[in-house]
Structure to design on (277 residues):
């Protein structure tokens, strides 16, 4: 089995963890900011964060990056070695494991039973603010392609399908769902969600702009989190016919629009106005 060398260290991490949470979202929903906020308020000095893991595979082997006490610790065998040195007998870290491929249920994390997580958190974001951010991400990831190339368009449509499925899962879920738009703009909302997660407010601000994905889609690390227009990204699509094309694709999907109307009703008139430009 390709993941076998990691069983022992994962079982050790599971056994000593003082708390465990799992966060699920898709790329550019703002989940790294939410994760950092959870870790800042978890009440534990020692923390382990395994980022963007592959579902139903070893989290240590497949994570895209990791943090031990807020510092990058690598992945795969480098992370295994770091954990072996880090997990001393008297250390009981809070462990958070994240996924960026939407929500799925049922034994996602080998060596961590589903019942061992105190909470599962689904992070969502309004479509009108998510779409321009994801378009920029696809262009950054495909620098050798033209800005409207087929591979970029294909990647955007694929992630729109994942976005739709994630909203549908959030709508039906009994887990804690965090709307990034509200989280980013409403301190009272952040306090309410901390309470829902069984956490006390220790540092309920927005925190630093996170390094994952190169920081903010539109300003990288040039601005503080409080200065980012996180709920006004849709305005960048006003004069962007390419973005309007994807708005019309979404509008043509009744199931997409149904779940969007349920969770983000304010998106609908904005989409209609932009799509007509």
């Amino acid at each position: 089995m390709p993941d076998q060398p990691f069983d022992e260290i994962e079982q050790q991490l599971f056994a000593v963890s003082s708390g465990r949470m799992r966060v699920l979202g898709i790329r550019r929903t703002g989940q790294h900011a939410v994760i950092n906020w959870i870790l800042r308020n978890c009440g534990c000095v020692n923390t382990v964060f395994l980022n963007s893991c592959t579902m139903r595979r070893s989290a240590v082997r497949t994570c895209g990056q990791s943090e031990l006490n807020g510092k990058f610790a690598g992945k795969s065998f480098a992370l295994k070695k770091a954990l072996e040195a880090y997990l001393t007998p008297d250390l009981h870290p809070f462990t958070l494991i994240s996924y960026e491929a939407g929500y799925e249920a049922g034994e996602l994390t080998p060596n961590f039973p589903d019942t061992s997580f105190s909470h599962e958190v689904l992070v969502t974001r309004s479509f009108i603010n998510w779409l321009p951010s994801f378009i920029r991400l696809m262009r950054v990831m495909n620098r050798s392609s033209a800005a409207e190339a087929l591979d970029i368009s294909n990647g955007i449509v694929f992630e729109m399908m994942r976005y739709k499925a994630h909203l549908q899962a959030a709508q039906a879920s009994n887990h804690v769902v965090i709307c990034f738009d509200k989280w980013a703009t409403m301190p009272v909302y952040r306090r309410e969600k901390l309470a829902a997660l069984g956490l006390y407010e220790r540092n309920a601000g927005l925190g630093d702009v996170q390094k994952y994905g190169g920081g903010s889609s539109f300003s990288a690390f040039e601005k503080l989190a409080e200065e980012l227009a996180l709920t006004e990204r849709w305005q960048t699509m006003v004069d962007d016919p390419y973005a309007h094309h994807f708005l019309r694709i979404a509008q043509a999907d009744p199931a997409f629009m149904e779940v969007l109307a349920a969770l983000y009703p304010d998106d609908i008139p904005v989409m209609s106005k932009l799509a007509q430009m």
The first helix runs from residue 7 to 16. Residues 49 and 96 are 5 Å apart (CA to CA). The chain is about 45% helix and 10% strand.
